[in-house]
């Protein structure tokens, strides 16, 4: 899995197998074409998580060039109308390479947008789009807090070894916010140091193991946060809603 940096803070993720590749959320076709050409790769297909332009912007042009399938949420959004998509639904299984070498399962994760899906490759790698970020979660543009909270709970229930590949490099900022919520969380301090080091070397802070998110991402820790005096007698969903609002103003 190779992150291709694009725009100011996006990662377009390349799923590579030998000389073949799939790309998740190609917002910029040129960035993908350059990477393919540099490594002599053939693009076999495209996976889209949701309809925002920085995720779908390059898909039509890549499809035209490579004559490859584009899997996308089942939605009538105009973003998808410039290309031929294969609509996906929760529980669908997509074969990325023949003979079961590489396949993925579709998870429906509404909240950031209503049509948001994630792709769970070989039950190990989760491409989470704009739902889960390093130490944070996406903004609620279309869905309710309850929908987003349920989507995050679905991710939290995956095996803790799952590696998560978010579409943006927001980790450092999210960690700074997390520290305002849990200043005494030791795992959080360690992650802040590690992330600073990675970012100083211009390395991505991602992917991130689910175990790390469970220990440091406040949006996955609403149950634990209810132990804190500040949040006592609030429901976990209430805590989540409060955190999301605070993060918007952070
Ligand atoms: Zn988005």
Describe this structure in words.
This protein has 250 residues and is an alpha/beta fold. The protein has a single domain (2-248), classed as Ribonuclease Z/Hydroxyacylglutathione hydrolase-like (Metallo-beta-lactamase, Chain A), CATH 3.60.15. Helix content is 34%, strand content 26%. It is built from 9 helices and 14 strands. It has helices spanning 29-38, 53-56, 59-66, 145-156, 171-181, 186-200, 210-216, 222-225, 236-248; strands spanning 2-6, 10-17, 20-24, 42-47, 70-73, 85-88, 93-97, 102-108, 117-121, 125-129, 132-133, 136-137, 163-166, 208-209. The protein has a 6-stranded mixed beta sheet with strand order 1-2-3-4-5-6. Strands 7-8-9-10-13-14 form a 6-stranded mixed beta sheet. A hairpin with a 2-residue loop joins β2 (10-17) and β3. The longest helix is centred in the C-terminal third of the chain and has 15 residues, at 186-200. It starts with a strand and ends with a helix. 42% of the residues are buried. The model has no long low-confidence stretch (mean pLDDT 97). Zinc ion binds at residues 50, 52, 112, 130.
Keywords:
26% strand; binds zinc ion; 250 residues; 6-stranded mixed beta sheet; Metallo-beta-lactamase, Chain A; single chain; alpha/beta; 14 strands
